[in-house]
Amino acid sequence: MPREPATWSTRERAVYYRMDATRLREMAEAASCAAARELLVALARRYRQAASRIEKRVLAPAG
Q: What does pTM read for this prediction?
């Protein structure tokens, strides 16, 4: 997985987090261990939440 460049825009970072969330969800679906599956799903959820928070900040009206 490529490292997140410090020069990425906030919007690009949100996209990156959503892509990671998707990848983690796919890993969870393939996991045979229930504990690993639960952890991966929880981590994917946190990545999606982080992306949503970033997007809200970017799209929030100025002022």
A: 0.79
